[in-house]
Amino acid sequence: MLSARERAHVTQVWDLIAGHEAHVGAELLLRLFTVYPSTKIYFRHLGTCPDEAQLQSHGQRMLAAVGVAVQRMDDLRAALSPLADLHAQVLRVDPANFPLLIQCFQVVLASHLQDEFTVEVQAAWDKFLTGVAVVLTEKYR
Description:
Belongs to the globin family. This protein is an all-alpha fold. It has helices at 4-17, 21-35, 53-71, 76-91, 97-113, 119-138.
């Protein structure tokens, strides 16, 4: 899926995010809700303040799943299978939301990393996150 260089870009960015998952995740969710208000339907219980504990908690869980995917890039299907089952069979999240989340995630990364989020790094993250989204939507079939 990813070349060695792309893997290095993904890992490098993840190393910068590590330790800030709650904050970055909350920002990601708020951006998603602002830009795509229809996605808030799945998160009615979450507020709109970046410091809200529930928002940060869910943001941290989301980014923890991304962290698992980063660690297991070679086996995304196995790594994300429980999460894919949850979203497809229990939560029944519209799979069209995953590409929206990817877009918002990249904007958040770019806003924090600025010059470090080069075209090559962005392309690697886009490819990686698209792979994650594909795995998460496979259970819908």
